[in-house]
Design a protein that fits this description.
single chain, alpha+beta, 8 helices, 8 strands
Length: 235
């Protein structure tokens, strides 16, 4: 099983066409026979959870059974027409837990593997309506520190629904640096503790990925993302 995440940034004053694309792209993705699951998403500012939307940046995530599956050509043509900057990740899920729309969309995953090298992480949650204030009052401290975390290569705040359905996709030099941020930063551990004690989420998901390819990045960043990637098998 393979996952593709595409981040499309529209030029200034063109973000409205990204908004329209969330409706326009649904049909070609739905009828694509090789795509098993997809989500069209908006973005928050500052590369993580952010209450303020980035109206020029939009995202598509889809899952397929082979690594050669691409988004429908119509979508790429639409982006080219509007001169979008496209960043694309081909990923293989290797570790994780949780549900998306009540399903294990990434299949059965181990909680730990022997993977070494750079790693991508997707964290996603559907926030309970009566816990929205708790969530947004507490995530700012983590969000402001994440861009400066040691070992972070890049991150994006994405989500299916403003305020309620939120996700962060991030790429780290290795598991150690990712875990140092997740479990040693006091602000982050405090938020984790509160999510459990106050039962913030209706649904949550956490997945780690092996990075198979990246396009649209400067060569030095792409090389850094792909450092020490072990051999993978078609699933």
């Amino acid at each position: 099983m393979f996952c593709t995440l595409i981040i499309a940034r529209y030029p200034k004053y063109s973000g409205v066409f990204g908004f329209f694309s969330m409706a326009i792209f649904r049909l070609p993705l739905y009828i694509h026979k090789k795509i098993k699951f997809f989500k069209l998403m908006g973005s928050g500012k500052n590369g993580t959870f952010d209450i303020h939307p980035d109206l020029n940046q939009w995202a598509i995530l889809f899952i397929a059974n082979d690594s050669s599956t691409k988004a429908p050509q119509f979508i790429y043509k639409y982006w080219r027409f509007f001169h979008c900057d496209i960043k694309e990740f081909l990923l293989q899920p290797i570790e994780g837990h949780g549900l998306w729309n009540g399903k294990k969309v990434f299949g059965e995953l181990s909680t730990q593997t022997a993977h070494d090298g750079s790693i991508a992480v997707l964290t996603r949650a559907t926030i309970k309506l009566n816990r929205l204030k708790n969530f947004w009052n507490n995530v700012e401290d983590v969000s402001t520190k994440m861009p400066f975390a040691k070992g972070l290569i890049i991150s994006y705040g994405i989500g299916e629904m403003p305020l309620i359905k939120q996700a962060t996709f991030s790429v780290w030099e290795n598991k150690e640096t990712m875990k140092n941020f997740a479990y040693n930063l006091k602000e982050h551990t405090a938020v984790i503790r509160k999510t459990r004690n106050e039962n913030w989420y209706k649904e949550e998901l956490f997945v780690r990925f092996r990075i198979l390819s990246v396009t649209g990045f400067a060569e030095n960043i792409a090389v850094k993302m792909l450092t020490l990637q072990p051999h993978y098998e078609e699933a």
